[in-house]
Amino acid sequence: MPTAHLRLTALLVAALLPWPFVPGTSAASATPCARYAAEAVRTGNVPTEIPELSGIAASRRHPGVYWAHNDSNNAGALFAIDGTGKLLARFPLRGLRPRDAEDVAVGPCAAGARQSCIYLADIGDNLRRRGEVWIGRVPEPAVLDGRMLQLEPDSFRYPGGARNAESLLVDPRSARLYVVTKSVDGLGEVYRLDDLAAKDGGRAVPIATLPAPAALARLTTAADAHPGGERVILRTYAGVWELRRPGARSLEEVFAAAPVEVTGAAQLQSEGIAYTSDGRSYVLAAEGDRSALYRVDCTDVAAAEPGAAPEPPAPSAARDAR
């Protein structure tokens, strides 16, 4: 059966099947933090099953759960962990054999959908030799039982040749996908992924170039979209940067905002960052056997008013919560 017919059949079946309400915070109700804590709190360690952690994302279906994966040639599974690093389940994957999986994101399976999907980004290309790179998509499982997950793979190409990237984001309203390249010239180039379902693969469309707001603000290794859709957070080897655009209608508007440095944590292989599912905090993860997990909390006394101007503290070294 042609691919287009398979996709149509899948959509029709999904429409006919009952889908339970997905717990978590919707884009409309996720209020950004007005002020982050000046220090990150160590919450635990990455489990031994993920020694090459390269991406982390908060589940939209299971509160307090995060999806994570290993790096190149080790991404044959997705792992469900909690905020302390406790392994809850390991899900083997089929449908895509990643060469260099660099990030994972969670967002709606389609614009306006209540069903959430996990997106695995096979987009790493240090030598810039890959003619096409891949995104694998699968609905979030209802139960953390470790069953086999079937990824739906889609390829795409960059204009003008290959790029190396380690960051994937999903717009929480439109379900559009974006990648941020890993660049020595700044925080990277931002591409929107169009026509992923096309027979010959999708297109990476350039929408923004993020300059270096500071000397060491280069080589973005991870990113995430705020569940409210008005912020984006980026991690480099040396720090964490947030883009804010109150009232933004799309992530493209957010990418036009000026980066603001926020609290980070000193880690050798800074490979992961994710907002918590309520959008009030964010977590930091790194590659390395039993590497530390950190969380940066919001210090607001109450939820910030919509559009309130954040007052970020100066970044500082992380402390251990012991």
Can I get a quick summary?
This protein is mainly β.
- Number of helical elements: 2
CATH domain fold name? Neuraminidase
Order of helices and strands: HEEEEEEEEEEEEEEEEEHEEEEE
CATH architecture: 6 Propeller
Strand order of the largest sheet: 6-7-8-10-14-13-12-11
- CATH C-level label: Mainly Beta
- Beta-strand percentage? 35-45%
Proportion of helical residues: under 10%
Mean pLDDT value: 88
**Alpha carbon gap, first and last residue:** 57 Å
Q: Low-confidence parts lasting 5 or more residues at pLDDT below 50?
A: 1-23, 302-322
Total number of beta strands: 22
Shape: globular
The largest β sheet comes out as:
8 strands, mixed
Structural class by secondary-structure content: mainly beta
Number of domains: 1
What Rg is obtained from the alpha carbons, in whole angstroms? 18 Å
Search tags:
mainly beta; five-stranded mixed sheet; globular; disordered C terminus
Task: Describe, in plain words, how this protein is organized in 3D.
- The protein is mostly beta strands and 322 residues long.
- The chain has one domain (22-320): Neuraminidase, CATH 2.120.10.
- The chain contains 2 helices and 22 strands.
- The chain has helices at residues 3-16, 251-254; strands at residues 41-45, 53-58, 65-70, 77-82, 87-94, 103-108, 116-122, 133-139, 149-150, 152-157, 165-170, 177-181, 186-194, 202-211, 220-225, 231-236, 240-244, 260-262, 270-275, 282-286, 292-296, 319-320.
- The strands form 4 sheets. Strands 6-7-8-10-14-13-12-11 form an 8-stranded mixed β-sheet, with no helix packed on it.
- It starts with a helix and ends with a strand.
